[in-house]
Amino acid sequence: MTRKGRSICFFLVTISLIAVFSCKITKPVSSISSSFKASIDSTEVKLSEEARKEFEYLFIDGLKQKTLGNTDDAIKIFSRCLEIDPRSAATLYEMANIHISKGDFQSSMFLLEKAVLINPNNQYYHLSLVKVYQQNKLFEKAASEYETLASLVPDNPDFPFYQAALRVMAGKNDQALVLYNQLEQKLGISEPIAVGKQQIYIQLGNKPAAYSEIEKLIQANPTVPKYYGLLADMYLADQNREKALENYDKILKLDPNDGFVHLSIANYYLEGNDSIKAFEHIKLAFRNSLLEFETKAQMYLLLIKPGASKISDKLQYELLHILIDSHIDDDRPRALMVDYYQGKKQLEEARKQIRLVLDMKKDNYQYWERLLLINNDLMDWSTMDADCKKALEYFPGQPLIYILKSVGLLQQKKYIELLSVIDSGLVNVKSDNKILSQFYTYRAEAYYNLKRFNEAFDVFDKVVELDPENYMAMNNYAYYLSLKGEHLGIAEKLSAKVIQANPDNATYLDTYAWVFFMKKDYQLAKFYMETALSKATEDSAVLIEHYGDILFYLNEKDNALLQWKKSLEKGNPSKILKQKIAEERYIETKEN
Asked: Can you give the pTM of this predicted structure?
């Protein structure tokens, strides 16, 4: 067994049932023509020469259709074969395999059982039947099939082991123990037998016998480190920490450079809340360049697990640098450093690290996406534009790159260029309405800012049709309609739908209030604007200005002036706001 991919508690060996039951055999599988001949030879049906020729023609055609993937046609042809010769085991076998490929394990079981009855000496029929029995959770029947296979192919040493493992799955531990003991008498002490018996004894609650099996294995193989690990894991599970550590130390004496052992000892100390000793061993393991990165990453992610972190920020940083140094040509440790800086909201540092990662692996789309999203979080639109251009050189068919480029251009008010990028991006979108909706949203925004209002509103209609849950677009559409003073009924319906789905969003509530303001329903406008202000996470200068506008029309002019001044103090740069304050009156703003 290799160490690659094992869990941190790494010495606990279990029988991998997926591997065990993969039905690998030591001999090559016979060709279909051979199994077909065996079936014909064993049949009791006497076919006329004409029927025999028709059967052979149809059978070969069925195999052809199956190979081409025309499974429904193949089943029809094989069914015709069975009409000619109902006892053709090869036909039953081929039909069963088609049903297996479709996930129909009941039908395949029925066909294979019949094939085995007709031709009980064909090992491949039994092997397929084992698979089907396992899928149907008929473990005892599967075990019996392996018993038959062991007698058919006595030189295959794997079948008895598979049979024993299936007896365990069927709850027949006593029968499995008998099989393991028989194998041990025949083959001697070995890891599969000892571990199989150990796990049975653990299930039965017979701990002394379980320990005895591993100790017997160690006596037979005193220089194999992992067997001491098996014993250490058992002791640790039984809270016998002293014995567990004793066996871990034995491993280090046999192989002091075994990085995996250091991780197991680190885990031992972590469970005992001795973080100082734990991190001594973690550092030794992380510095070991022979220990694969996946195993180290598993320990690292365990240490920083949200809600259960066992590591200081300083030590986390130190471990990441050890990982980078011990896997200098691997991009993944540095990608973890990107996570570290993003978690600390140090986005500039995160961006530096992801650029280093991209220097190592420019053909990784996920890394480009992370860089672009960091640019977005930094609101660095010019850099976003440049990085999108580079990313498109490697991934010209990725819609998200065009979307993020569109965001950057929109923020830079480069509307003509934005329309061109959208046209290029749409070429790579087929039928994903969510993505299409995003593209058309930015097109509508570009049209609106270019004063092409009718075109903008037509595109917004398309956005809503494509994605009825694109609330940002619906909100903007409603707001733009209200600013124009047009189609206020449509604006109210759109905004109401947005508010229903997002009742705590201050920006959306502001739009809803503004629609009522434009409809001259100032009481409702005041209610929703006050709700918006109560939901805002920080004072919004624009919301406060709008609140003042509403109060002015409710004849609360002094309070309105107070709100306008407050908005100005909050940094509202509007020239019209200053005019409102100077003239102490509301001044209407409309889009032309």
From this structure: 0.67
